[in-house]
Design a protein that fits this description.
Layout: E1 2-9, E2 13-14, E3 27-33, H1 38-50, E4 55-60, E5 64-66, E6 69-71, E7 74-81, E8 86-93, H2 100-111, E9 116-123, H3 130-140, E10 146-151, E11 163-165, E12 168-170, E13 173-180, E14 184-191, E15 195-207, E16 210-214, E17 217-218, H4 219-227, E18 243-246, E19 255-257, E20 259-263, E21 268-271, E22 280-285, H5 288-303, E23 313-319, H6 320-326, H7 330-340, E24 346-352, E25 354-358, E26 365-368, E27 372-379
Parallel strand pairs: 3-4, 9-10, 23-24
Antiparallel strand pairs: 1-2, 1-7, 3-7, 5-6, 5-24, 8-13, 9-13, 10-25, 11-12, 14-27, 15-16, 15-22, 16-17, 16-21, 18-19, 18-22, 20-21, 23-27, 25-26
Helix pairs in contact: 2-3, 5-7
């Protein structure tokens, strides 16, 4: 596999000369860009013009990752030319009131094939139920197909996101690329670095990704009580205090859920994924050292599939909430990932509204919040 990573900024332009001879139907171009910058959209059109035969995927972000850097109002691009791996992309609209599980099923059914090894998914970050999307994918794809990806971001605005579609940038859309062939090498890692605190409560009333009651009490009022003065900044301040959920009696690492919106009239909280009734829930918190360390653990888990090193493409997807906690130390978590990867790895990625990855090696895909997830792609 030939790999080139670049970054674009309005004042500086492209960070390196544009590579020649890489455009082909077996070339994957992954790009992550600002939602606010009009100039960034022009740079995306430039990429599309330079790679007319290639398979292009991308989305908006809450921060763009390029190698060990985190930037805003930029475009991060990775171009991977495969010799023995084939690619197929699907783009689907998200219908108003549609079922995200059905979207996942359609993606899986469309991409399924005997040589399918991995699927990378990017979705609108505000109009999809990520846990149902992954459930649909898991229902239609074999267990040995690695599914990873993320939900598009919009900084701290939570207003609108875009995904790269057939004709350019579109909202209310999900896209996925399937990678086929025995020569594909794929690794994945996922780690959170958050710890639970406070009493564990029962989810006594919920519908899908909307939480109404904990222990029979209005969820929003209870949550505001924990936030105190920070409650005035909802939903953005909720990124600092996500929810850990687990089935009653379940052991092991919980799933983490971040709030996307609040409804004062219904006293409810809306999450990026399901919060099933009957599950148990606790608040979570973290610190900068835990987040930086966990990012390195995610990278190390992904690199387990690459004991002989190589020069893989690393796609890092981290949660916007982690960036808020890390502040000026954000780049340290990206550097922590790189330190755990093969020395010649090239990295792009983004800060997201949700991360898609198996929790463990050989597991099925889940929706996560507040995690660092790493996907490694290379060719034998």
């Amino acid at each position: 596999m030939l790999l080139q990573t670049l970054t674009w900024q309005e004042r500086a332009g492209w960070s390196a000369p544009w590579p020649a001879g890489m455009d082909s139907p077996t070339t994957l171009a992954v790009m992550f860009g600002s939602n606010a910058s009009i100039a960034c959209r022009a740079a995306i059109d430039d990429v599309r013009g330079r790679l007319p035969q290639s398979v292009l995927v991308g989305c908006s972000t809450a921060g763009e990752i390029h190698d060990g850097q985190v930037q805003d109002e930029s475009l991060s691009v990775a171009i991977a030319y495969f010799a023995g791996v084939t690619l197929r992309r699907v783009v689907l609209p998200i219908a108003h009131g549609g079922d995200s599980r059905d979207l996942g099923r359609t993606l899986g059914e469309t991409l399924a094939g005997p040589a399918l090894r991995a699927v990378f998914v990017l979705s609108d970050g505000l109009n999809v139920n990520g846990s149902r999307l992954t459930a649909g994918l898991n229902e239609t794809l074999p267990d040995d197909v690695v599914v990873t990806g993320g939900l598009a971001g919009d900084g701290e605005r939570f207003s609108a996101t875009w995904v790269l579609g057939d004709q350019g940038l579109v909202d209310r859309c999900v896209t996925a690329v399937g990678l086929y062939g025995e020569r594909l090498r794929v690794g994945h890692g996922c780690h959170a670095g958050w710890s639970s605190f406070g009493p564990e409560r029962s989810i006594t009333r919920s519908e899908g990704n909307v939480l109404y009651e904990l222990d029979g009490r209005p969820a929003l009022a209870l949550y505001k009580g924990y936030l105190g003065d920070r409650a005035a900044g909802l939903p953005a301040t909720a990124l600092l205090f996500p929810l850990a959920i687990r089935r009653h009696g379940e052991e092991g690492q919980p799933l983490v859920r971040t709030i996307l919106g609040v409804d004062e009239a219904a006293q409810s909280l809306t999450f990026a994924g399901d919060v099933p009734q009957g599950h148990r829930a606790r608040l979570m918190r973290t610190n900068t050292e835990s987040l930086i360390q966990s990012a390195g653990l995610a990278g190390a888990r992904a690199a387990q599939e690459f004991p002989d090193a190589g020069s893989p493409l690393s796609i890092a997807v981290s949660c916007v909430g982690r960036r808020l906690v890390l502040g000026e130390r954000t780049e340290e978590e990206i550097e922590s990932v790189l330190d755990a990867l093969p020395r010649k790895a090239g990295q792009v990625g983004f800060y997201s509204y949700g991360e898609l990855s198996p929790r463990q090696r050989g597991g099925v895909c889940d929706l996560h919040n507040q995690t660092m997830t790493v996907t490694l792609l290379d060719e034998a």
